[in-house]
Amino acid sequence: MSHLSGFFFIAGFLFQYLSKNFNKKDYYTSKIKNVIIPYLILSTPALIASLTFVDQAMPAGFEDKHIVVQIFLFVITGKHLAPFWFVPTITIIYLFAPLLIIADRARWPYYALPILLVVSAMLGRDGFLEITQIGGYFSPISKAIYLFPIYFFGMFCSQFRDQIARWVITWHWPLLVLALAAFWAEVMILDATIEYIFVFKLITSLLLVYYLDLYGKEMLARIAYVGTASFGIFFVHGYFLQIVRMGNKYLTGSEFFPANVIYLLAFIIAIIAISCLSLSLVQKLFGKNSRLIVGV
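and the corresponding structure tokens:
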């Protein structure tokens, strides 16, 4: 799940960057149209599968609940398809958008960032659930608490982007070394108190801004459609992942793939390509209305 922390950083960065003319009604109308409705539409096949022949990791007693309640619990947790946890989680942050605008314009709330980031690194994605001992249906709240600091950090980097850009240029190589060290620690240190992958993602988010500033125009020219369709790719790629897993299990008897870098890269490229092709087909079939279906 930590691989999406970079997405939360970018989301926070863009939220602040585009907040000059923030209008609450327009903001929530856009989120309902471009996020919630596509989420509900694309959830339908996964919900049918989860309610019939695919077993999902839900809390004890879930099977005894009425089917309408089961659907509701799937939708608010995103547990009916692995990547879908993201929508209930970021929706919680969307709800606080007006307060975040106030915080951004006041600026002083950013002084809380060091504490918030340390808490996330120590807490981990499910730390809130472990501390409070509340049920798994509240997992989006735990994930939102975990990921909010990096979203807020993205806002901070947008608010002070010129100063931060100069700082990152000066400290580029030390930051790169720290990022590699954090990644090494995540892999090598078992049962660590700190979630080093969070630290890694935090540092690489800063470096991402630096690299995009250097190479962004050239990179975006080459992968323009992938960038434009990124939200749609998020919505549909889970289905293709599940299909590939099921096919691999049928052919090999295992859901796990070979631990091979070349195989992994080919797999990632193939999933992105198939996702883009499917989105392009939906766009051609539904035109402007495709945004309501697949978010792009």
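(Above: one complete record from the training split.) The chain has 15 helices and no strands.
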